[in-house]
Design goal:
Layout (H helix, E strand, L loop, with lengths): L1 H12 L7 H17 L1 E2 L4 E2 L9 H20 L2 H12 L5 H24 E2 L2 E2 L8 H4 L15 H35 L3 H25 L7 E2 L4 E2 L2 E2 L27 E4 L2 E4 L2 E2 L1 H6 L3 H9 L9 H18 L9 H23 L15 H17 L3 H11 L5 H18 L3 H8 L12 E3 L2 E3 L4
Antiparallel strand pairs: 1-2, 3-4, 5-10, 6-7, 8-9, 11-12
Helix pairs in contact: 2-3, 3-4, 3-5, 4-5, 4-14, 7-11, 7-12, 7-13, 7-15, 7-16, 10-12, 11-12, 12-13, 13-15, 14-15
Length: 456
Amino acid sequence: MVVKFFSCCCAVASGLPVGPEGPMIHLGGLVGAGLSQFRSTTLQCHLPFFTRFRNSEDRRNFISAGAAAGVASAFGAPVGGLLFAMEEVSSFWNMKLSWQTFFCCMVSTVTTDLFNSAFTGFQYMGDFGLFKSNKYILFQVTDGIAVNILAFLPTVVIGVLGGVFGALFNFTNLKITRLRRRIVTYTKHASLQKVLRIAEPLLVTVIMVSVSVMLPAAFPCSKFTCFFDGDTYSSTCTNHPSSPLHTEPTVQSYDCPEGIRVVVNGTTFTNGSFNQVATLLMVPGERAIQHLFSRNTHLEFDYSVLLTVLPIYFFLACWAAGMSIASGIVVPMLFIGGIYGRLVGLAIVSMFGVHTADSSPYWAWMDPGAFALIGAASFFGGVSRLTVSLTVIMMEITNDVQFLLPIMVAIMVAKWVGDFLTHPLYHALLEFKCIPFLDAEPVIVTDGQRVIALPV
């Protein structure tokens, strides 16, 4: 547990295309398995406590509750953690286990939020017990948009893309995993195998850092949506203070001039510029996802930037998933889905123009940030094939209930398309590692007209 914890911290902090959610789930399962038994075969320690739980059923239930608590702590999503354990982790479920797991997720979320309320990093900031929305909700969407029935047409397209890209991600990841195992197997010396396992994350880190630092230099500086040059102010920036079309002030300048800012009629204009690629790659994954999900930022990212970052990050995320480090793939999945979802939204804006809530409320749904959210959910569903728990998790980490139905549609379409092409990633890895797994549907083997009874 200690090694996995520090490995996860170092992997996420290094800038690799990984996230902390997977190890959090695993750590929760380890805590559930260890504390419920109060014994350790490795440490040769057998304490005379909780002996009534030393059976396979109770141990399995505690592991399920621990995994659910890990999801609740990682996402700040207690209900999503419960549903994740029910949908993906547990092979057996009952009502008693439901409320026990729910209580476990509640305590886990409250504990996490208490520490997040008072600490930023390792520095005490005060306000202990004040659950701030910017810390409590991971990817909070502040500007709600009314959903139009026409939005379901591009939503279906995004769902299809999520299923296709999710199947491609699973296929590529399995190919890389098989190649990794083949190389390690052909290496006869145990010491050289350890060197290879250490060298691979170092190589991916060097590639990712090089791409993040050097790729932005290949793209020119971009003007802010609300820019001014002398006495000329941009006409693409709306002056309505309640819902202005803008560029986020937290974008990365890289080597671009920052300029100065002036306020005219409640709208902030600047003569500075920023780098779009650096805004996506030179920040933590969570912040990059927040940029993709941002509303009323129609012109913040161009086609060329999104189309360049997508394949590079996609391949590196496939490669990084499965290395000898403690890491998860939730953040990369949301990032990849957010990119192609924003591409679809940008294409709609290019065809039908920019519409905001103050100028044309009926067409305000054509926002690239809104479709980035739908794309993130579709790719998550295309890779994992989760449905109910994924929908609830997306609601809890964004607080965007208005887009509940489009997210549900995108997740279901992505699951149908993905199931037609490949297995879910988690189940495919179970088969690859030869871990015993009883499928929901029985396997029937026939010899002509006769059903063959396989040995158990």
